[in-house]
Specification:
The complex is a heterodimer of chains A (244) and B (316).
Chain A: H1 2-16, H2 20-39, H3 51-54, H4 57-69, H5 71-79, H6 81-86, H7 92-112, H8 115-124, H9 129-154, H10 160-176, H11 180-189, H12 192-200, H13 203-211, H14 217-241
Chain B: E1 2-11, E2 14-24, E3 29-33, H1 40-47, E4 55-60, E5 63-64, H2 69-75, E6 76-79, H3 91-101, H4 106-120, H5 135-147, E7 153-157, H6 165-178, E8 183-187, H7 191-197, E9 200-205, E10 208-213, H8 215-220, E11 228-233, H9 239-247, E12 252-261, E13 264-271, H10 278-288, E14 291-297, H11 302-309
Parallel strand pairs in B: 3-8, 3-9, 6-7, 7-8
Antiparallel strand pairs in B: 1-2, 1-4, 4-5, 9-10, 11-13, 11-14, 12-13
The chains are: A mainly alpha (244), B alpha/beta (316).
Bound molecules: adenosine-5'-triphosphate and magnesium ion (MG).
């Protein structure tokens, strides 16, 4: 556990050692802002809630989150520091978990810095703050799931650009699985239960539930399973391919 | 403290390390030699638990590197080839991280870091980004992180590569100093380094162990070892005539004329088994009144032996 924290601290400090972290946070706030106010018509809706803020997160995260996760392992592999890290008395699981937690924490910081929109709705009206807290939690969980996918993919290549593109694609598949377009396509070929299964794999459905303020165990289990499965696969692929 | 048995590593069709076995005991400084691509780094990566062997075992202080990698890694200080470091950190930050990861208690960390820093002389760059350091300083930071926890086993892949002559000297001193209570394995392409710091040398080529012995044994493998070399200025008579009179000396098995130029003649005299030719030769030179520029018993040249032992084995 303490070794996980050691890795976590180094990694998180690493984000802020270069201007990249600040640039990322600015871009993150910019895009969440644009989608909320311009695309989501925050004011025109005349509702004191953050629906238009959270609505776009599954899509926004498609490119924002892989930008965080792409360097997790690709950079270690291309610079050779993976050899330094993996010959310290730290297990692969501790290293994977420590680095993932740092990335998740960083995403959490970026998300937390969107608090002015929360303040805004509270000034303008009387929103259901319970729903908003739940939505923030859902958004954070979704970021974690995306990061776990990104971390896994980043361990498979030493090229950060490839890691970014493949992670974005991977997450896109996971979101799109819940869209009517995909489900109708599936229905046209397979029976209904297949379509239902596909839909249950989608991030969208689970995220939507939580943003309604309903924190259902099934949704938590979904995100938790996705996260743990990806990180476990991450440790396995890393052990198999770290020296290539 | 290091026990390696039948260690083998294959990368697809390529056998990088092929059935290598050897033990290293406390107090030994083992020099690992071999042409490029011989499998030196691959062997070190397996001993440090970075790579899993295809077959065979490696144990460090009794800990098997496959079944108990963490146990083995605790005992090891490792400088990987090329000294990879986190470029966006400062040496101080990196050493703190490694000290923490190595499990040095918080109260002793600062002292451990200070000790490592002063041993490799990186005080003046401690707070600069590693990215901006010169190659030699990066190598020194790599060394510092390898010794910060005062490990029992030190594995250094080309530790003096990229260092200036002063630093090379310092690092060799450091290795000698630390060798008393440790096991040190280092790889190098500088053969004099082996003679200077190692108590034992191993040569591998194409993954196979070719030599295991002391640097002196290695030198003795040169056919020229024990031969007497002679250089005469203002050579009296032809090289052939001189050669004949040298061959006539008691105990000389063979005379090899070396390059002759500007009236200077050079020979190498190979003694017959157990014979001493140095005495009779200097007597003859004295008697004939030759102007002797150089007369010496040869130690044998490491680079000659290295070439013979690894002949035709260069691999990309
Ligand atoms: N991850 C890998 N995948 C495939 N082949 C590899 C890998 N690592 C090393 N090799 C090959 O294994 C062989 C041994 O390499 P190694 O790095 O151990 O050589 P070395 O003795 O350290 O050489 P050098 O003196 O150049 O450092 C080489 O042919 C190399 O190309
Ligand atoms: Mg090497």
């Amino acid at each position: 556990m303490s070794r996980t924290i050691t890795v976590f601290k180094r990694e998180l400090a690493g984000y802020f050692a270069t201007p990249v972290a600040y640039v990322f946070i600015v871009v993150f706030l910019l895009f969440t802002g644009i989608t909320t106010f311009n695309v989501g018509n925050f004011y025109e809706r005349g509702q004191a809630d953050l629906m238009s803020f959270f609505f776009f997160h599954p899509w926004l995260y498609l490119f924002l989150i892989p930008a965080i996760s792409m360097r997790l392992w690709s950079e270690e592999r291309s610079s050779g520091t993976i050899e330094l890290l993996m010959t310290l008395p730290i297990s692969t699981t501790q290293a994977v978990f420590g680095k993932f937690l740092a990335a998740w924490c960083f995403a959490g910081i970026a998300l937390a810095l969107t608090f002015p929109v929360w303040v805004t709705v509270n000034v303008l009206g009387e929103p259901d703050n319970g729903v908003i807290v739940a939505s923030y939690l859902g958004s954070f969980l979704m970021a974690g799931a995306y990061l776990a996918i990104g971390s896994l993919i980043s361990s498979l290549t030493r090229n950060q650009v490839i890691a970014f593109v493949l992670s974005a694609l991977g997450c896109a598949v996971l979101v799109a699985a819940g869209s009517d377009w995909v489900l109708n396509l599936v229905r046209s070929v397979f029976p209904e239960w297949v379509a239902q299964t596909v839909a249950s794999f989608s991030v969208q459905a689970h995220f939507d539930q939580i943003t309604k303020g309903i924190i259902d165990l099934r949704d938590l289990v979904y995100f938790g399973t996705l996260l743990v499965a990806c990180l476990a696969a991450n440790a396995v692929t890393l052990n198999a391919s770290k020296a290539d | 403290m290091i026990e390696i048995q039948h260690l083998t590593k294959r990368f697809g069709a390529l056998t990088a390390v092929d059935d290598v076995s050897f033990d290293v005991a406390r107090g030994e400084v083992l020099g690992f030699l071999g042409p490029n691509g011989a499998g030196k780094s691959t062997t070190m990566k397996m001993v440090t638990g970075f790579l899993d062997p295809t077959s065979g075992t490696a144990k460090v202080c009794g800990h098997d590197v496959v079944s108990d990698p963490i146990g083995a890694q605790r005992k090891i200080g490792y400088l990987p080839e090329g000294a990879p470091l986190y470029g966006d950190m400062t040496p101080r930050g990196l050493l703190k991280f490694v000290a923490e990861a190595r499990g040095i208690p918080a109260s002793q960390r600062a002292a451990a870091i200070d000790r490592a820093v002063s041993r490799v002389h990186i005080e003046e760059v401690l707070n600069r980004r590693i990215d901006t350091l010169s190659k030699g300083y990066k190598r020194r930071v790599g060394l510092a992180q390898a010794i910060v926890h005062d490990p029992e086993v030190l594995i250094l892949d080309e530790p003096t590569d990229g260092l200036d002559p002063n630093q090379k000297h310092d690092v060799r001193e450091l290795i000698r100093e630390m060798s008393r209570d440790k096991v040190i394995v280092l790889s190098t392409h500088i053969l004099e380094e082996v003679a200077a710091v190692c108590s034992r040398a191993i040569i591998i080529a194409r993954g196979k162990l070719r030599f295991d012995g002391t640097p002196a044994d290695l030198q003795a493998m040169d056919p020229a070892h024990g031969a007497v070399s002679l250089t005469i200025g203002q050579a009296p008579g032809t090289t052939e005539a001189l050669g004949e009179s040298l061959s006539a000396i008691d105990g000389v098995a063979r005379v090899e004329p070396l390059d002759a130029a500007n009236g200077v003649a050079s020979f190498r005299l190979y003694p017959a088994e157990g014979a001493n030719v140095f005495g009779p030769l200097s007597a003859l030179a004295h008697e004939r009144g030759w102007e002797v520029d150089h007369l010496a018993v040869e130690d044998g040249r490491l680079d000659e032996v290295f070439r013979t032992v690894t002949a035709g084995d260069a691999r990309s």
